[in-house]
Amino acid sequence: MAELHPISMYEGDIPKNDTAVLVVDMQRAFFDNNDSLGQAGLDVTPLRTAIPGSVKLVNLARASGVPVIFTRYVYMPGMVDFGHKYGASAEARKTSNSLGFGTEEIEIISELDVQPDEVVIDKSRPSSFYGTRLEPVLTGMGVRNLIVCGVTTNICVETTVRDAGQRDYGTFVVSDAVGEFLPERNHYALFGMGWSFANVVTVADIEASWASVPQAKAG
């Protein structure tokens, strides 16, 4: 395999004020092969690499007074918004009501312990902005910076990050709190985001940067 181009890692300060952590699609179906994605032939095991970093980031945000917003990939009853899907297993997923409303597999994993006052945004496309209330929520909260983690790096995380960057949010993607099916896809998704749409950071970078900043005002 050819040598991968290095990812440009951000070395500046990471804002804590006017900032939210956006946790993309950390749902049971993306981590358990017994659920619909696994049953359709997609081995979701590699995505579990996103769990430890996402848990640490979410706990850090809560302790620092930074709001946490979650997204879920969910289709309406009857899969009426499933749309045309490119790639493998689309018809099998539609037939099996994959990520269908009301199924247990759409729920955010227990490790993240979603709190009653935390916002959960449902979506049926990769971008967390497309057809959702995310942008009005961010405006209402006074958020101008987004720190993004979740799955998958190359699809929903990257599409969300591109949309955030194009809306002029200060956008940060957390390299050790994302997951992808193939390591090359993970690498080049981060490479592309760092090239033009976001700053690529680690959980440790955020922790170090926030340590010197007064606690943010939640909500």
TrEMBL record:
<feature type="domain" description="Isochorismatase-like">
    <location>
        <begin position="19"/>
        <end position="205"/>
    </location>
</feature>
<dbReference type="Pfam" id="PF00857">
    <property type="entry name" value="Isochorismatase"/>
</dbReference>
<dbReference type="GO" id="GO:0016787">
    <property type="term" value="F:hydrolase activity"/>
</dbReference>
<dbReference type="InterPro" id="IPR036380">
    <property type="entry name" value="Isochorismatase-like_sf"/>
</dbReference>
<keyword id="KW-0378">Hydrolase</keyword>
<dbReference type="InterPro" id="IPR050272">
    <property type="entry name" value="Isochorismatase-like_hydrls"/>
</dbReference>
<protein>
    <submittedName>
        <fullName>Peroxyureidoacrylate/ureidoacrylate amidohydrolase RutB</fullName>
    </submittedName>
</protein>
<dbReference type="InterPro" id="IPR000868">
    <property type="entry name" value="Isochorismatase-like_dom"/>
</dbReference>
